[in-house]
């Protein structure tokens, strides 16, 4: 039985530990702050694809991961008994002018080819979609069936429960045992950059809010850069900001108030819904803007899984698979743009 140490219990660390344990590895999972203590403890949970054009390795990887998500989370829930709040509920985006309509129709065609018939990107009339839809100047929206939602904290809790069922607790401190995978988020990017003597990424602050509003299994909305995500527990997430300049990493401020006002303007039905939580945290963004995966340069037996930024939950099933392949089977399926060297 192979020993593996995973340092970091955010979504990457938890998912990698799960994938390794499922293959029979003896996993040690270590995080001094507990599960989901960083960016993975947020509230948004938008699992949404990049636009289906200018295809590249990052988009192909993300497609695979989004398609893997349903069986991945089904197995997690079946093992640990807790729901991650996952649902492939789709996404709606308004089409506000002729240029946007032209692009949407072009992308509908490329999605047919690139998404392999496993999901669709369609232009639809608002009247055909139903009452839960963003305002659109043309009366048309983009409806994609690849997007999904999950509740980040519930997803982390579901993985913790599944790992616990397999006899893998989260330890606050312990020595390394076997290959070591560092999935340590924004702080890890900083320490790795210091060791390598060059910046390889940075922390980006995000702020988000959670409203008490039950939209059941309605699609998520993406309006003017803003995500509105109905969760299965009767809440609705609004997010998020992307701030590179900040003084308080976990404090909310007027920027979040602006975000909430934008959401109320985009979807007036939300007026009167109470804000039950305001959240802020740091998300790790690698210089390449893709997840950073692979061997730690000049540290034999050490590996990195970092840089999830805004797409960490959507990328997690595939990240877990390729990292388990690499560490357990010495099989390297990491795209060139995802390698640590791409951010150096």
Automatic annotation (TrEMBL):
Pfam families: DAO (PF01266). SUPFAM superfamilies: Nucleotide-binding domain. InterPro entries: FAD-dep_OxRdtase, FAD/NAD-bd_sf. GO terms for molecular function: oxidoreductase activity. Keywords: Oxidoreductase. Residues 3-326 form the FAD dependent oxidoreductase domain. One of its GO terms (cellular component) is cytoplasm. PANTHER family: GLYCINE OXIDASE (PTHR13847:SF289), SARCOSINE DEHYDROGENASE-RELATED (PTHR13847). This is Glycine/D-amino acid oxidase.
